[in-house]
């Protein structure tokens, strides 16, 4: 079955005033959809890949021949990364991490405020287009990393639990070059229940 965009848990306007409705609609129906469409085209050219999940495709990336490898890296990564991004946003988010995630946050960063400060600082310094992530490693330790373009943490043996899209299409209509303002606003939409579910289940 072809990959399909996951249904959003909110209407386009529901993330206002932090992210405007036109940005959400364009981001989802144009950018995310294009990644999905191009991913399906590449996968359909190699029948042995058709039954793989997006996670399996990205893990298997080094073994996929060109030119499909590059398309799946870019469009498959874009599809997967955006799935992660939307799934942890909510107009009515749970404001505090779950207990098991909070223990991991405190052990690594000292406090939730420290995590937010370090995450925001890392995101603000990212050069060009890419992502900032909170990830879990194989030992259940958490860390903050960045990836360029549509590279995904899953190809680096991390499980992403929180994703921040730093491509300009994610914020430019409302914030123009004020990336730091977008990052600050984005925290108001982070649903810590969803983040905790990723931490517990991944």
UniProtKB/TrEMBL annotation:
It catalyses: 2 superoxide + 2 H(+) = H2O2 + O2. Keywords: Metal-binding, Oxidoreductase. InterPro entries: Mn/Fe_SOD, Mn/Fe_SOD_BS, Mn/Fe_SOD_C, Mn/Fe_SOD_N, Mn/Fe_SOD_N_sf, SOD_C_sf. It is an enzyme of class 1 (oxidoreductase). Its EC number is 1.15.1.1. PROSITE patterns: SOD_MN. It comes from the Bacteria. GO terms for cellular component: cytoplasm. GO terms for molecular function: metal ion binding; superoxide dismutase activity. Residues 97-196 form the Manganese/iron superoxide dismutase C-terminal domain. Residues 3-90 form the Manganese/iron superoxide dismutase N-terminal domain. It holds the Pfam family Sod_Fe_C. Destroys radicals which are normally produced within the cells and which are toxic to biological systems. Belongs to the iron/manganese superoxide dismutase family. This is Superoxide dismutase. It comes from candidate division WWE3 bacterium RIFCSPHIGHO2_01_FULL_43_9.
């Amino acid at each position: 079955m072809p990959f399909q965009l996951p249904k959003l848990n909110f209407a386009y306007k529901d993330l206002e005033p932090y992210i405007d409705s036109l940005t959400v609609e364009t981001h989802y129906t144009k950018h995310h959809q294009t990644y999905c469409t191009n991913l399906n085209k590449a996968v359909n050219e190699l029948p042995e890949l058709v039954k793989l999940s997006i996670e399996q495709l990205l893990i298997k990336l080094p073994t996929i021949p060109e030119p499909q490898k590059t398309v799946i890296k870019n469009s498959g990564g874009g599809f997967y990364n955006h799935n992660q991004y939307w799934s942890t946003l909510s107009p009515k988010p749970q404001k505090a991490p779950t207990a098991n995630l909070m223990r991991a946050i405190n052990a690594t960063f000292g406090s939730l405020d420290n995590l937010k400060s370090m995450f925001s600082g890392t995101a603000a310094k990212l050069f060009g287009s890419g992502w900032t992530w909170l990830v879990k490693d194989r030992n259940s330790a958490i860390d903050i990393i960045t990836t360029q373009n549509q590279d995904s943490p899953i190809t680096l043996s991390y499980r992403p639990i929180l994703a921040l899209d730093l491509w300009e299409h994610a914020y430019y209509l409302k914030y123009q070059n004020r990336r730091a303002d977008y990052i600050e606003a984005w925290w108001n939409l982070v649903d810590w229940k969803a983040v905790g579910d990723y931490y517990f289940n991944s």
